[in-house]
Amino acid sequence: MLADSIIEPCTSHWSNPILLVPKKLDASGEKKWRLVIDYRKINNVIENDKFPLPNITEILNSLSGCIYFSHLDLHQAFYNVNLDKESRQYTAFCSGQYQMTRMPMELKTSPSSFSRMMTIAMAGLNYEKCLVYQDDLVVYGNSLHPHNKNLLDIFERLRKVNLKLNAAKCVFLKTDMLYSGHVISDKSVLPDPEKKCFKKIIPSRKQ
């Protein structure tokens, strides 16, 4: 993180505790770790960001009836948002002492701030060629050609706004796909059978 300029040395009066948690194994099978910072004290005193988060039920409804899907995962999603220099001191953590230069996911305002950024970045494409839920993008199409055209348009936009993909987590050209705890296909949107919870089944719009 230091080499990537995501963190920097500091002399802040704040010092938040950290821990390392294992990441879910990706296609590479390599064990990786995530740095988690406990910002509960900071979160208690900062103002909420009122920008709305995407509605997952609305997204799933929009995917129902589509035939082809690709799932894109953004690389280091929240770290694409720079923190202004005045705010960085409050993100300091104790391992030595460093502070964030990019937006950490543990701040309570981060999801809304990231959602705002993605709404701006994908303007004109969201709900037209793709569906965006935080760092997950689903590209869809009712036939092969529209899907592929949509995918190229998304690639071009991501290149324009300088957002990169995590290739190990991307899935392309599927007729059924696991997404946000659901199995989506042209026939239905069903809860993931491996999840021990029950959610409303969304029927396909196709007759």
UniProtKB/TrEMBL annotation:
InterPro entries xrefs: DNA/RNA_pol_sf, Rev_trsase/Diguanyl_cyclase, RT_dom, Viral_Replic_Matur_Polypro
Location of the Reverse transcriptase domain: 2-184
Range of residues in the leader sequence: none
A Gene Ontology biological process term: DNA biosynthetic process
Protein name, per record: Reverse transcriptase domain-containing protein
Gene source species: Euphydryas editha
